[in-house]
Amino acid sequence: MAVEEASLVKSGDTEADSSGAPLPPVDSGSSRSSPYVSGLIAVMFWGTTPAATVLVAHDMPSSLIGPSRLLLAAVFLLPMVLLLRPPLPTDRGGWIAVAINGMIGFGGSFFLQGLGFSRTSTSHAALILACAPVFTSIIQHVLSRTFPRTLWLIGSAMALCGETFLIGARSNGDVFGSGTMVGDVIVLIGTITVSIGYVAGARASARIGLFGATAWSIIFGAALVTPLLPSVLEAISGVTVVGGGALFFLAVFCTLIGFAAWFWALDKGGVSAIAPLQFGQPIVSLLIAVIFLGEQLSMSIFAAVGLVLTGVYFCRKSA
User: Where are the domains of the chain?
Assistant: First the structure.
């Protein structure tokens, strides 16, 4: 979920020519629908992340999935960076933001997702990840020292209650799918690191643009895990066709193409129009869990779905 990063740096949806005069709107139906299609593509890719991670975990240690995904993404990204030459930060604050986003937002979250997704069910992982906007808002309010609106407080309370109910249901024997409470907690911590990355990425994007902030953050994160390269290469050498394909999908489609498609959709379609598409991400994950992984959904998880998605909607509406 990356809308928080773009929403802080996008100043408006109206284009202008070199003289400052607004350009006439494009009437083409295909032009209007293209941002939605691009956003849906990103949401579909991100919705498959938990299931794809589980497939990779069958072939390599879960602790190496995140570093492998990050290093492989950087390998494919580096030629684009050399060709397009996105700007580097020019001040200390920009470098700090890129470093935090790379180390925590990408490196930390990928590592924890690799550990957590392999230890919990896809349905649990999907709903826990859906709360990233809530955690992002909390961090933003703390850093800006502002008090949130009443609607935001209600929404965040609902979403967090849904998360607590989702994780606590395991202790009552209501387990839908495989996994453990430890896996849920790891994914929850990973979701918080994602939110930290969103806030840092927004600050970097304000200085060097969305592509520059994302590209340099991924490369920075990959540089930090480079000492693990021998272990990663050894692990990759033993993966099956299915596991290797899933890892490639995570690195290229879920990471590079997913972020590129999402940011393009936000830029062309506007944050307010494209952001609601993110509500489809946990739905995609749940459908994959039921149809392809055979996970069973109980009334408890449907209750958690209602609490989490309604709470996140209220938080977005109050923004």
Answer: 34-318
